[in-house]
């Protein structure tokens, strides 16, 4: 780790990518009461931009625009919608460097990861551009003569997309691209910590030819977010909510959506296990946990939160992992050698530190890290040392709550049955990982894990062609893949007689 790094500013080559306004209909506008929301750089703690702090009136205007645009957009041939999405994809790739800088500046991740996220976001736009022309229905064999029976796929209508701060480009692309491909119109609200990237993506979508009103974006502070979202929840014209965030908020959205029976896609909290069996390729397992745990500083919903290692390889694994983690370079995105950036804000740092302190008080051992990084060389208090804990027990906060930080909490286990029981002993079920070279065990453990996503000898799971989502209190619905497109469609059965 280091405490000395360059502090050059991540300037954009194309400043127009920061419109500083929200899009409602055809107009980039201020909030109706002209209130503004400050955006801070987590690497320095300094405010470097402002955006509108939208309110209920803006939220209603956004729905009005989306509802008005829906009939024409749903009637637009799928091939034309696909062409617009392909142009959007091309613009994302053409502006990858600037968008990567914008992500890194408002979210904090290293610049290489910021640019990588842009490519990941674009992959969803490209995928759903191709899938737009494949939303096929069915001709059903009729049980009697003189009848034709069909199942047609139609867009659900206006979609409200509510996105998190940890992947401000990828999450909005993963929601908006399938909505547009299906023929839906969109109202969206990005996270209050990272609105700039989402605004830039919507600006490029507009430049790609998305018609006025088809995408509307309202930015809002944490204080005003409930009033914005409540408007969408109450409005019967909004037929679907797509949300990525906490389980508590997801449950609120589900309860409030019941009055109008909206369709829901909820990608909620995680508590992912990462299991290493005695027969695992140990070096591969180390690489896997490094990729899965420390990407974006551990601030990912599929990040392993609990690492279970079998007796026979436990000590060797902990030693190797500790050495790898201790060598990670911590710093801002302006330093090209940084591997771990700042956490998003002070609340995140406080939670991470609380989890580590609680674990140590209950008997865990710090192998490396375990403290905030402050003082000379650190321009803000948002840095935390990448940490490995051993001797972690199920009663510790880091075992029961999602830490969302660069903390690898390692627990020793003896038997396969013990590991599976521990992995499933959580209300969550988003992602799970395990490493083993025994093919019989691979099939047993895959079947036994209660998780929507399973990585077998692999730490990098997400892909645009794969369905992404959880079970239990990690939510329902899927993003990505043909299943993700289907979540923005409903099925209409048509029966024609007297033929």
TrEMBL record:
User: Its GO biological process terms?
Assistant: gamma-aminobutyric acid catabolic process
Task: Work out whether the entry's keyword set contains Oxidoreductase.
Answer: yes
Q: Which named protein is this?
A: Succinate-semialdehyde dehydrogenase [NADP+]
Which Pfam families did the record assign?
Aldedh
Q: Which UniProt keywords apply?
A: Oxidoreductase
Q: Where is the active site?
A: 267
Q: Does this entry carry the keyword Ubl conjugation?
A: no
- Originating species: Collimonas fungivorans (strain Ter331)
